[in-house]
Amino acid sequence: MRGIVPSKKVMSKLGKTNAEFKLIEEGDKILVGLSGGKDSLTMIHAMREQQRRAPFKFEFVAVTVGYGMGENFDKLSAHCKANGIEHVIRDTQTYELAKEKIRKNSSFCSFFSRMRRGYLYSVAQELGCNKVALGHHMDDAAESFFMNFIYNGQMRSLAPKYTAENGLIVIRPLIQMRERQLLAFVQDNEIEAIGDEACPAMRFDVKMPHARAKMKVMLAKMEKEFPDLFTSLNAAFKNISVDSFFITED
Ligand SMILES: Nc1ncnc2c1ncn2[C@@H]1O[C@H](COP(=O)(O)OP(=O)(O)OP(=O)(O)O)[C@@H](O)[C@H]1O
């Protein structure tokens, strides 16, 4: 089954990122995290097409983690089925476990994300996957970079590939793509994506993820002033002069 094919630009970025960071390799079995948002939806279609084109064989399965909030994933399942993509749904008690945090009005956004990551890893192991793919893109990497810089005093971003403590390899095939490319993919193909309001943190009137929203606004302003900002950031993330920072000798 051919299914929906992402644009040439998306496929070429995926191919280049794959080759550059050796993300997908012969014999891989990859768990692809599918939230139902535009990013992970683009990712499953791009990987499906990559599987068709690549001269090597790999398998993948889309996995959706529910938060125990009565989410309905029927449409998402039907979409995967119609496009010949294996889809596994796992519901969890994350919401129940997070209630205490919600009562205390403390940040539970990161709690959801930590719990989700843990579930994704255990499902990956259960399904015999050696890699986990996440749909983060260049805008996410830039926002994370500036969030860490401004709020935490750290120089960190989102790596295209790393090995988690449990030995699973985490890959981010969309990391060199812009968010607007992913939005265009779902719009052009009239794919119904879950919007930002589906982020569990947005469902409660407490502690919204202000920091990320602020970074988005700041980056948009900077990009207006410096149109090549993201191209530069992408290059800078590969061109790090560690020696030029304040490193102590011991
Ligand atoms: N409920 C979920 N089940 C499975 N994987 C998920 C889930 N939520 C997020 N992920 C994975 O983690 C990645 C990053 O999550 P994040 O919350 O930043 O994305 P999102 O805003 O839901 O975006 P997206 O548009 O990718 O779906 C997603 O792209 C997806 O690969």
Question: Can you offer a commentary on this structure?
Answer:
Residues 29-198 form the tRNA(Ile)-lysidine/2-thiocytidine synthase N-terminal domain. One of its GO terms (molecular function) is transferase activity. Keywords: ATP-binding, Nucleotide-binding, Transferase. This is tRNA 2-thiocytidine biosynthesis protein TtcA. ATP binds at residues 33-35, 39, 65, 135, 140. By secondary structure, the protein is of the alpha/beta class. The chain has one domain (8-240): 3-Layer(aba) Sandwich (Rossmann fold), CATH 3.40.50. The chain is 46% helix and 11% strand. It is built from nine helices and six strands; from the N terminus they run αβαβαβααβαββααα. It has helices spanning 8-21, 38-53, 74-82, 94-103, 109-126, 138-152, 179-188, 210-225, 229-236; strands at 29-33, 59-66, 87-91, 131-133, 161-163, 169-171. It has a six-stranded mixed β-sheet, with helices on both faces. α3 (74-82) links the parallel β2 and β3 (87-91). α2 (38-53) packs across α7 and α6 (138-152) crosses α8 (210-225). It is globular. It binds adenosine-5'-triphosphate.
How do the strands and helices of this protein lay out in sequence?
Layout: H1 8-21, E1 29-33, H2 38-53, E2 59-66, H3 74-82, E3 87-91, H4 94-103, H5 109-126, E4 131-133, H6 138-152, E5 161-163, E6 169-171, H7 179-188, H8 210-225, H9 229-236
Parallel strand pairs: 1-2, 1-4, 2-3, 4-6
Antiparallel strand pairs: 5-6
Helix pairs in contact: 2-7, 6-8
